[in-house]
Design goal:
The chain is of the alpha/beta class. The chain folds into two domains: about 350 residues, FAD/NAD(P)-binding domain; about 230 residues, Glucose Oxidase, domain 3, CATH 3.30.560.10. Strands 7, 8, 15, 16, 17, 18, 21, 24 and 25 form a nine-stranded mixed beta sheet that branches. Strands 1, 2, 9, 10, 11, 12, 26 and 27 form an eight-stranded mixed beta sheet that branches. It has a two-stranded antiparallel sheet with strand order 3-4. β13, α8 and β14 form a beta-alpha-beta unit. The chain is globular, with a radius of gyration of 24 Å. It holds the Pfam family GMC_oxred_N.
């Protein structure tokens, strides 16, 4: 809780040149800065639009999330009205401080299944198979759950980035969900959700990027801690509240384009624009919305769009800002006992003091943010008519086969939405405080809530990021183009219907759960209306600077170099060839680890 000044360098005091300039200070950028500055002879500059944001609350898992914090570490973009979703405008949140999304996300540490990375390799991305990516996951990781004397070969025990699971379930409904999922043909993978041998579907115990002291393990706290910045202060500079207006791209005597540096300006209006030269490379790591925006401002992107904004076309690269993908979710919602839901903190505020003491004294309790403890991965192709999973052979569990990549995820979130108005089935049940009529302090109170957030993991809808103007301070125009394909609607319908059946199994097995907000009926029309009215982003934006051949809409090659521009790379979730069917923080860190190795090898 004691604050120490984090050493940053204002724009006016930056050097004229650095070996490497990292644009952005988010999830991937912190990893890159650590790795590229390991040699004292190599100078590195990190330019972050937001602040350092390292107050005590930013380390408390629950209170540091985007939804529970003051918003100072978040940046929000409004989408254009989504024509396939009742013209709704969605708010897309990303990081706005050192550490980026890893400072405000749900802290889930999930890598995805081997089949996804193998598909990248088979598509021509050399060096990106699962076996080739595994060392980068291991390098960055300390899995606190591992036996340090006999760790699994696919896990790290000495990396900077820590993760752990909750040793015991916090919520009763977690056990009820596991039993209900098991009765629907979905096994519970107790030991290791990130093992390459685990089936690609089933009920999965979650790991969270929380350190051994119960603090959020963001990539800034893990890879750029205060002590490291002080030790490397002569050759690693962190500049915050600074905006890169564009990358300085010049054409050399041979006619080739090269990134020579960046133009940078203060968001605090304390200094004029400066040009900082990159002796070796500029690495763009500003995230899947800002990375393409900066490329477009720099004259790299679809030529016609650049001309519309009066930006000289240096490289006609149509893939920049195209192929935007996101995981869209919809949450059927239910009433459950208040004691079994996060809503007890709202209706019984005296519990907050208890939870604070539990966290400060013992590092346990709800401030560790167990909003959900498990998720369920599904392959819709295995559904029978009752939405049970029916395996036809052992190969259906093989996570190395592309046909087995999950396309639906169910995230049981221990709250309910108390604001939006959607069709309600049945009355909202009222529960006794303490759960039993014999309790001396029993009284009627509002029920708790459980949402079964049902997510389409393999969307086919593709959106765009485009400039609103040539002013770098203006937000870009973001159009995720949600639910623009029939396949996406079909998957969402199946996800909703599975969630409803899962709830029915919980109720049948004796767990007290009743309907709250559901489709008006099971017809396609009513399910679709429910989806359009209540679907939400899961903040998993990707693929706007995707790794692929230029003629296939790619922006970077398999060494993350921007096509046609020397000395310029991109390293964040925007380079994914297509969105991964998992949570994106761990894969983004692995991308940064691999990028750092490639940069060192090429320089």
């Amino acid at each position: 809780m004691f604050q120490f000044s984090y050493p940053t360098v204002p724009i006016a005091r930056l050097a004229e040149e650095y070996d490497f300039i990292i644009v952005g200070g988010g999830t991937a950028a912190c990893v890159l800065a650590n790795r590229l500055s390991q040699e004292e002879s190599v100078s590195v500059l990190v330019i972050e639009r937001g602040a350092v944001g390292d107050g005590w609350l930013s380390s408390v898992p629950l209170l540091s999330s985007h939804f529970a914090s003051d918003g100072s570490r978040s940046r929000v973009w409004n989408t254009v009205p989504q024509k396939h979703v009742n013209s709704r405008v969605f708010q897309l949140a990303g990081g706005n401080s050192l550490g980026g999304g890893s400072r405000i996300n749900a802290m889930l540490y999930m890598r995805g299944v081997p089949a996804e990375y193998d598909a990248w390799s088979k598509a021509g991305c050399k060096g990106w198979s699962y076996d080739e990516m595994l060392p980068y996951f291991v390098r960055s990781e300390t899995d606190i759950d591992q036996d340090r004397d006999r760790p699994a070969s696919h896990h790290g025990i000495s990396g900077e980035w820590q993760n752990m699971s909750y040793k015991q379930p916090v919520w009763e409904h977690t056990k009820a969900l596991i039993r209900a999922a098991g009765s629907m043909g979905l096994p519970y993978h107790v030991d290791d959700p990130n093992s390459p041998l685990s089936p690609s579907h089933g009920c999965v115990k979650l790991h969270f990027s929380i350190d051994s002291q119960g603090r959020r393990s963001s990539t800034s706290s893990a890879f750029l801690p205060l002590q490291l910045i002080r030790r490397r202060s002569n050759h690693l500079h962190i500049c915050v509240r600074a905006l890169v207006s564009r990358i300085d791209v010049q054409r050399d005597a041979e006619g080739e384009l090269r990134a020579e540096g960046v133009f940078i300006q203060s968001l605090d209006r304390r200094a004029s624009t400066r040009h900082i030269r990159a002796k070796r490379e500029v690495i763009l790591s500003a995230g899947p919305i800002s990375s393409p925006q900066i490329l477009l401002l720099s004259g790299i992107g679809p030529a016609e769009h650049l001309r519309e904004h009066g930006i000289p076309v240096l490289k006609d690269l149509p893939g920049v800002g195209s192929h935007l993908q996101d995981h869209l979710g919809i949450a059927p919602q239910y009433c459950i006992p208040l004691h079994d839901s996060f809503l007890k903190l709202k209706f019984q505020p005296w519990l907050i003091l208890k939870e604070l003491l539990l966290y400060l004294l013992f590092g346990i309790g709800l401030l560790l943010s167990p909003t959900f403890e498990i998720v369920i991965f599904l392959q819709s192709r295995l559904f029978d008519e009752k939405y049970h999973s029916a395996l036809s052979c052992d190969a259906d569990s093989d996570a190395s086969l592309s046909r087995n990549i999950a396309d639906i995820e169910i995230m049981p979130v221990s709250v309910r939405d108390m604001t939006t108005t959607v069709s309600v089935r049945g009355p909202a049940q009222r529960y006794w405080l303490g759960g039993g009529s014999g309790n001396l302090f029993s009284q009627f109170i509002a029920p708790g809530g459980l949402g079964l957030l049902s997510v389409n993991l393999r969307p086919t809808s593709l959106g765009t990021v485009r400039l609103a103007s040539s002013n770098p301070e203006d937000d870009p125009i973001v159009d995720p183009n949600y639910l623009s394909t029939e396949r996406d609607f079909s998957i969402m319908r199946q996800a909703v219907r599975f969630s409803i059946q899962l709830k029915e199994q919980m109720a049948t097995q004796g767990y007290p759960i009743t309907d709250f907000k559901l489709p008006a009926s099971d017809s396609d029309a009513d399910v679709d209306a429910f989806i359009r009215g209540a679907c939400e982003t899961t903040y998993h934006f990707s693929s706007t600077c995707r790794m692929a051949l230029e003629e296939e809409g790619g922006v970077v090659d398999d060494r993350l170099r921007v096509h046609g521009v020397r000395g310029l790379r991109v390293a964040d979730s925007s380079i994914f060839p297509q969105i991964l069917a998992t949570h994106l923080a761990a894969p983004t860190v692995a991308v940064a680890e691999k990028c750092a190795d490639m940069v060192k090898a090429d320089n």
